UniProtKB/TrEMBL annotation:
<comment type="similarity">
    <text>Belongs to the metallophosphoesterase superfamily. YfcE family.</text>
</comment>
<dbReference type="InterPro" id="IPR029052">
    <property type="entry name" value="Metallo-depent_PP-like"/>
</dbReference>
<dbReference type="GO" id="GO:0046872">
    <property type="term" value="F:metal ion binding"/>
</dbReference>
<feature type="domain" description="Calcineurin-like phosphoesterase">
    <location>
        <begin position="5"/>
        <end position="150"/>
    </location>
</feature>
<keyword id="KW-0479">Metal-binding</keyword>
<protein>
    <recommendedName>
        <fullName>Phosphoesterase</fullName>
        <ecNumber>3.1.4.-</ecNumber>
    </recommendedName>
</protein>
<dbReference type="InterPro" id="IPR000979">
    <property type="entry name" value="Phosphodiesterase_MJ0936/Vps29"/>
</dbReference>
<dbReference type="GO" id="GO:0016787">
    <property type="term" value="F:hydrolase activity"/>
</dbReference>
<dbReference type="Pfam" id="PF12850">
    <property type="entry name" value="Metallophos_2"/>
</dbReference>
<dbReference type="InterPro" id="IPR024654">
    <property type="entry name" value="Calcineurin-like_PHP_lpxH"/>
</dbReference>
Length: 167
């Protein structure tokens, strides 16, 4: 059975925005599983994600204080639709990322990460997919804010889509 996913990171509420755009919440509520790769900043945002998500897999980021760190882990792992996922906030510099992550996550099919606010979609030498959904609230040097959607089905990650967020 296919599992719909929403991938999000770096929400930075309420520092970068007062709220998430309605389209982001609509996607979160419709998804079977929501993956958040850290930098919530506000514990109330985690509470709202938990209330609105059917299933939430989440980690803390470098901007998350002790309350969020007490509720979340640094690295989360889950199997979804026959795919082994890991979630972490930071992966270090872009240069050499694929080789470094192969060494750190040798038992993972898909690694979701955040931190840079820059969308990323690549495949490591051993075939692990690396995904960064960008940020739905702080585009930094990107043309628009973003998140990702995908489908996990029978061991295959399908329809990975970078979704622009219009504020």
């Amino acid at each position: 059975m296919a599992t719909s996913l929403v991938l999000v990171a770096d929400t930075h509420l309420p520092k970068r925005a007062k709220a998430l755009a309605p389209a982001v919440w609509d996607a979160i509520e419709a998804a079977d599983v929501v993956i958040h790769a850290g930098d919530w900043v506000d514990e109330a945002t985690l509470d709202e994600f938990e209330a609105r998500s059917k299933s939430l897999i989440a980690v803390y980021g470098n901007n998350d204080g002790p309350e969020l760190r007490a509720r979340l882990c640094e690295i989360a792992r889950a199997e979804i639709g026959g795919i082994r996922f890991a979630v972490i906030h930071e992966t270090g510099a872009a240069k050499g990322r694929e080789k470094r992550m192969d060494g750190q996550f040798d038992d993972v099919d898909v690694l979701v990460f955040g931190h840079s606010h820059i969308p990323w979609d690549s495949v490591t030498p051993r075939g692990m997919r690396l995904l960064n959904p960008g940020s739905p609230t702080d585009r930094r040097r990107q043309p628009v804010c973003t998140f990702m959607t995908a489908i996990a089905d029978e061991g295959e990650l399908q329809d990975v889509t970078l979704v622009p967020v219009h504020r």
